[in-house]
Amino acid sequence: MHTNVGWLALLLATGSAGAQEAATPVRETILVRAEHVIVRPGHVLDAAQVLVRDGRIVAVGTDLEAPEGARVIEGRFVCAGFIDPWSALGLGGDALAEVNSTAATRSIDGFDPFNLDHLRREALRAGVTSARVQLGPQARIGGLGAVVRLVPGLAREEVVVSDASNLWMTAGLGQPTGGQFVDTGDGFQMLGGERTPDPFERAEAVDRIVSALQAGKNYLIAQNEHRHELEDWKKKIVEKDAELDKEFKKAKKDREKAQKDAEEKGKKFEEKKFKDEKKPQAPRFDEDNEVLARAIDGRLPLFVGAERAAEIRALLAGTESLGRLRLVITGGSEAGPKASELAERHIPVLVWPTPLGRVRPDELDQHDLSLAGRLSRDGVQVLLGSGGRDPAATRDLPLLAGLAIAHGLARDDALEAVTIGAARVLDVADRIGSIEAGKDADLIILDGPPLETTTNVRYTISSGRVVVTPEN
Asked: Are the C-beta atoms of residues 460 and 125 closer than 8 Å to each other?
């Protein structure tokens, strides 16, 4: 699927371990010719071309010619760059170990565009061009995730696809105690050790999520009520102004008469006071409730880490009345019995299809490589990710997708899970995830069908930059 490049070879290729700077490739006008252009899973153009200019796809068709001076790239298959919707690549150790975040905490603030550039390059060689990063993967409330490009050293405006792609929470997952050494780019840090919560703690974790969402709902209701009250107030002010304008002359005469009468009687003249309509007061601003309200209103997907059947069942029951909430179950090892409800409520499951040995966290006891295939066959939308804890795992995303395919997930469903499906759930499908005019030029050119074990990525194009070639 891709060739692993050793640390020494990477040092030779980039010049030094800290080579933030082999220069970032420039954007070019590019014409890609391929035997098969996979516009999106299920829609393939044969003997087709893709024209790229200024970082965008400007045309897709079967009769495109290369503009003068354009770079021509040829291959057998072309598809959109892979998206890892559950990644840790680019976050430092402090961000990954965070447990005190709130709903408004932003993962993008913990993102380092130069962090672990050797792993980024390996991910790009595997065809992974973008990833959702999330600080505090084990935090009860992990805040706002972000979708970023993986090319090292890009300017912020180019590297950030979305700085608020989702809200993250966890339900009943083991709490970090330290235990696993991971290279985070800030040196090796101990992450991933866990204390297994008891059943009462798991129930409390779900209750805490539902309570937080209810607080967000109440805040949203207060906002909506204030908006309506403000509209009514403005309407009354307009009506009052019109009334006063109409009666202005009469009011002026009445005032002059009253003033004269007061002077003749030697009394103090007092202006008649009109009772103004009091302007409605807005709800007190709360940045965490602002984020929760966006999730409740469906403007932001809510990713919840939940593995056990009990937590998934309680979570589904606790959110059933929140009709606009866009819930995404992350992990979902024991989601199978709830597949019909998940499908009916259009709740995707983000699966980590990685092999686990006998030593595994308690909540992953039922972890199974066939989960993605079983859920998909039952009508559940499946996404595939690299687990969100180990920055090195993103480069293995195509391999993990291949494992899911080998254990029952249809190939087109797997491809959708790491391209347009992930983009839609993360609200970035207008920019990435498929090969369509107007979208960012994130493409991979392969020597065989995507996600087959014998297929190699020959070229990777990220935002119109050729970042992987057969030579590097």
From this structure: yes
